[in-house]
Amino acid sequence: MEGEKAPAVEVCKGVNGLDKVVLREARDCSAEVYLYGGHVTSWKNDGEELLFVSNKAIFKPPKAIRGGIPICFPQFSNFGSLEQHGFARNKQWSIDTDPPPFPTVTSSRAFVDLILKPSEEDLKIWPNSYEFRLRVTLGPGGDLMLTSRIRNTNTEGKTFSFTFAYHTYFFVSDISEVRVEGLETLDYLDNLQERKRFTEQGDAVVFESEVDKIYLSTPAKLAILDHEKKRTFVLRKDGLPDAVVWNPWDKKAKAMADFGDDEYKHMVCVEAAAIEKPIELKPNEEWTGRYFSLVWSFTSDMDHACIC
Ligand code: BG6
User: Fold this and answer.
1) Does residue 244 have its Cβ closer than 6 Å to ligand 1?
2) What is the pTM of this model?
3) Least C-beta-crowded within 10 Å: which of 30, 45, 92, 188?
4) Could you read off the pLDDT of 74-107 as tens digits, one per residue?
């Protein structure tokens, strides 16, 4: 009806008829979450898209959606014998209608709770029972928060361990004008050099060629500065000590079927992760990993001087 406000939470159909949940807040802020993968595919402030999703992304199981925020669980990359980045990103999640309460009550109306549990088939691949609860919240100011709660529900006293990442693809206007701050002087494993350990020398991470690094024991707060757009993404994380920075650059971009040849210019992945020290859960134990992101506009270089 005319003048009627769109609902804060709406379940509808997305690309290829896949189920998605749309979250809405004031000032044209929104987020979209696909049940396929428990995958955030859009985050907008003032109607402007802040996440990158490839024009060639395949919204069709079993391929994970290229872009947005894929969830890497229970394995990051090939750190183990499972498929690359684990299976959570290509499983069908469900809406969790009765999630256990959170310690703090959210003031937001725009959130959704999803749940993933293993099927009989899944247990053959990774023989562990778990409940993975994901809450995606769009805050009243347009900020985006993802909270993962993973519980070991094994009944035979079995502990399990896993690695994890929120594999976030941020949209940037020009990768050569982007800096990632907060990682300077830290140690990293370079995926392009057999995961050898180095120490970051620059005063920020900048991009002139392919970058694929796992920074270790990183601070809770990181920032991505997009000079051309004059905006900064401020990221906060909790329970996730590591941070992956990835841009495939031209050669690898061309080799990916679901990624445009020039799209590397408009994205950067800064991933909140737990990789170096896998998370270990005894039966009935629960782990929480939180990731929060907001965007600021700046008008001069001085405006972002105090971020990190
Ligand atoms: C990053 C890894 O997290 O994900 C890269 O560090 C990898 O090595 C990239 O290439 C993309 O992975 P995928 O499986 O989505 O193509």
Assistant:
1) yes
2) 0.96
3) 92
4) 999 999 999 999 999 999 999 999 999 988 777 8
